[in-house]
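Re: weekly structure request thread

Next one in the queue (187 aa):
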Amino acid sequence: MKIGVLALQGAFIEHVNSLKKLGVDTILVKKKSDLKDIQGLILPGGESTAIGKLLVDLDLKDEIKMLIENGLPVFGTCAGMILLAKNITNDERKHLALMDITVKRNAYGRQNDSFCIEENFKGISSKVEMVFIRAPYIEKVGENVEILATVDSNIVAARQKNMLVTSFHPELTSDLKVHQYFIDMIK
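Done, posted below.
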């Protein structure tokens, strides 16, 4: 199995390190040819506006969108969740717009409002460590979206078919359970 990690901006190396600990081959995705022969793709946290612009500038957006529409498993964390969302309440931009969720950017406030908590995650038997940094959350989900985790009644993880999203950064912890969940989705 080989998983691509979008490497345009943000916490992509941390995802690679988590996947390597789980024995998964990875490739940094920086151009179209990097998308060949991958079985999954991670869209990392970072700055969604910058990543969205680079997807267009580097001619990756349409190819990635088509692959996901055709069933490629994808995992979006924080900014990656914003990229996948069909609607963003406090931003008129749309990026990949594939997942039937409405997301609020920077919903948890500024950088100094960042926090860490352990919470339940549906499908994982023990609590998951969740790191929130200027994090979004999901305000609304469509009919075919499964809610996987909430914090203070806010939706922070969800799944729709081949798409998994989290508001938090599992790659910034030593807890590999969410990455394993994604690997299990691919299998």
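The chain has a mean pLDDT of 95. The chain has five helices and twelve strands.
Next request, please.
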